[in-house]
Amino acid sequence: MRIPEQIQRLAVITAVIIVGVLVARFLLIPRSLISDELHRASTIQRENARPIKFAGSSACQDCHEDKTSQMRKGYHKNLSCEGCHGPAVRHTEDPMGVKPPAPRDRKFCPLCHGYDASRPTGFPQINPTVHNPIKPCITCHNPHDPVPRQVPQSCSACHAQIQRTTAVSSHALLRCTTCHNVPAQHRKTPRSALPSKPESRAFCGSCHGKESAQKDAPKVDLTNHGSTYLCWQCHYPHLPEGRG
Ligand code: HEC
Ligand code: HEC
Ligand code: HEC
Ligand code: HEC
Ligand code: HEC
Ligand code: HEC
Ligand code: HEC
Ligand code: HEC
Predict the structure, then answer these.
(1) Is 110 in the pocket of ligand 2 (CB under 6 A)?
(2) Which residues contact residue 146 at a Cβ distance below 8 angstroms, ignoring those fewer than 6 apart?
(3) Which of 137, 178, 186, 233 could disulfide-link to 109, CB 3.0 to 4.6 Å?
(4) Mean pLDDT of 89-118
(5) Is the CB of residue 81 less than 8 Å from the CB of residue 60?
(6) What's the DSSP call for residue 24?
(7) The predicted structure's pLDDT at residue 227
(8) pTM greater than the 0.85 cutoff
(9) Is 88 close to ligand 2, i.e. is its CB under 6 Å away?
(10) Angstrom distances, CA of residue 141 to CA of 20, 135, 137
C-alpha cells in the first residue's frame, strides 16, 4: 500500500522542523545561554554577594528577651520584629552605634489595621479618621502586646454605649470617675444611688480654662467661649470633638 503523497510531504516538513530545532538547540545557541547550572551558579554568586539586611526575629531574642517574650503570648505573636523596626542586621552587629527606628507615628499601624473590605473577616480593623484621631496608637495600645484597650468593666456592664463612645474620643484617657462621683451602691441598685454629674462651666474649665495646668487639654477663654451656656449644651462630654 502506498502512503498518500500529502502525508509524505507532511512527514518531510516535520522531519525538517525536528532537525532544525535540534541543530539550533545543540549547535547554534551557545551553551552559556542554555545551561541552567551556569545560570544558577551565577545567580547564587550574585545573591550571596548582597549584604544581608534582615537578622531574623530569633537574633533579637538574645538582647531583647523582655520584648520577645511579651510578643510571644500576645496578639502580635506572628509578626516579625523587623516588619516594624526595619532590617536590623547592622544593629545586631553594633547595637549602640546603629539604632533601628521605631514606628511611633499614627500612620504606621493602619497599614495593617486600617479598614479595608478585602481583609479577612474578623481581622481587627479600625477607621483611622474616627478611631481616636489625635493621639498616636501606642498611647493606648502596647505595640508588643496589643490588647483592645479595656474600658473599665465596672461601668461598661450597664453603660456600654457611653463607654465605647468615650473610649475612642479625645476624652478616652479620662476616667469616668474624673467627672462622676459614683457611690458604691450605684452598681448594686443603680437608681437608688445615682452618681453626680458636672454642674458648672468651671468644672470643664479646670482642665480647659486658660489658667489650667493640664497641659494636654486645648484651652478656651471661659469668660466668652460659648457665651454663658453650659459646655455640654454644645459638646457631648463623652465625645467632645463632635460639636452640636
Ligand atoms: C547584641 C545585642 C542586641 C541585639 C542582637 C539586638 N539589639 Fe536592639 N538594642 C540593643 C542595645 C544595647 C540597644 C540600646 C538600648 C539603649 O539605648 O538603652 C538596643 C536598642 C534597640 C531599639 C531601640 C532604639 C531606640 O531608638 O531606642 C530597638 C527598636 C531595637 N533595639 C530593636 C532590635 C531588633 C528588632 C533586633 C533584632 C533584629 C535587635 N534589636 C537585636 C542590643 C541588641
Ligand atoms: C507592630 C509593630 C512592632 C513589632 C512587631 C515590634 N515592635 Fe518594637 N516597637 C514598636 C514601636 C511602635 C515602638 C516604640 C514604643 C514607644 O515609643 O513606646 C517599639 C519599641 C521597641 C524598643 C525600644 C524600647 C522601648 O520600649 O521603647 C525595642 C528594644 C523594641 N521595640 C524591640 C522589639 C523586638 C525585639 C521585637 C520582636 C520581638 C519588636 N520590637 C517587635 C513596634 C513594634
Ligand atoms: C504587619 C501587620 C500588622 C501591623 C503593622 C500591626 N498589627 Fe496589630 N495585629 C496584627 C495581627 C495579625 C493581629 C492579630 C489578629 C488576630 O488575632 O486575628 C493584630 C492584633 C492587634 C490588636 C488586637 C485587636 C483585637 O481586638 O484582637 C491590636 C489592638 C493591634 N493589633 C494594634 C496594633 C498597633 C497599635 C499597631 C502599630 C504599633 C499594630 N497593631 C501594627 C497585624 C499587625
Ligand atoms: C485614646 C486611646 C486609643 C488610641 C489613641 C487608639 N486606640 Fe485603638 N482602641 C482603643 C479602645 C478603647 C479600643 C476598644 C474599643 C471597643 O471595644 O470598641 C480599641 C480597639 C482597637 C482595635 C481592635 C478593634 C476590633 O475590632 O477588635 C484595633 C485594631 C485598634 N484599636 C487599633 C488602633 C490603631 C491602629 C490606632 C492608631 C491609628 C489606635 N487603635 C489608636 C483605644 C485607642
Ligand atoms: C448595674 C448597672 C450599672 C452600673 C454597673 C453602673 N451604672 Fe450608672 N446607671 C445605671 C442606671 C440603671 C442608671 C439610671 C439611668 C436612668 O435613670 O435612665 C444609671 C445612671 C448613671 C448616671 C446618670 C445619673 C443621673 O443623674 O442622670 C451616671 C452619671 C452614671 N450612671 C455613671 C456611672 C458610672 C461612672 C459607673 C461606673 C463607675 C456606673 N454608672 C455603673 C446603671 C449602672
Ligand atoms: C469629661 C467629663 C466626663 C467624663 C470623663 C464622663 N462623663 Fe458622663 N457625663 C458628663 C456630663 C457633663 C454629663 C451630663 C450631660 C448632660 O447633662 O447632658 C454626663 C452624663 C452621663 C450620664 C447620664 C446619661 C447621659 O448620657 O447624659 C451617664 C450614664 C454617664 N455620664 C456615664 C459616664 C460613664 C460610664 C463614663 C466613663 C466611660 C463617663 N460618663 C465619663 C461628663 C463626663
Ligand atoms: C481632667 C481634665 C479634663 C476635664 C475635666 C475635661 N476635659 Fe476636655 N479634654 C481633656 C484633654 C486632655 C483633651 C485633649 C485630648 C487630646 O488632645 O487628645 C480634651 C479635649 C476636649 C475637647 C477638644 C476636642 C477636639 O479635639 O477638638 C473638648 C471640646 C473638650 N475636651 C470639652 C470638655 C468639656 C465640655 C468638659 C466638661 C464636661 C471637659 N472637656 C472636661 C481633658 C479634660
Ligand atoms: C454655644 C456653643 C458652645 C459652648 C456653650 C461651648 N463651646 Fe466649646 N466650642 C464650640 C465650638 C463651635 C467650637 C469649635 C470652634 C472653635 O474652636 O472656636 C468649640 C471648641 C472648643 C474646644 C476646642 C478648642 C481647640 O483649640 O481645639 C474646647 C476645648 C472647648 N470648646 C471647650 C469648651 C468648654 C470647656 C466649654 C464650657 C466652659 C465650652 N467649650 C462651651 C462651641 C461651644
Answers:
(1) no
(2) 74, 75, 76
(3) 137
(4) 93
(5) yes
(6) I
(7) 87
(8) no
(9) no
(10) 68, 11, 6
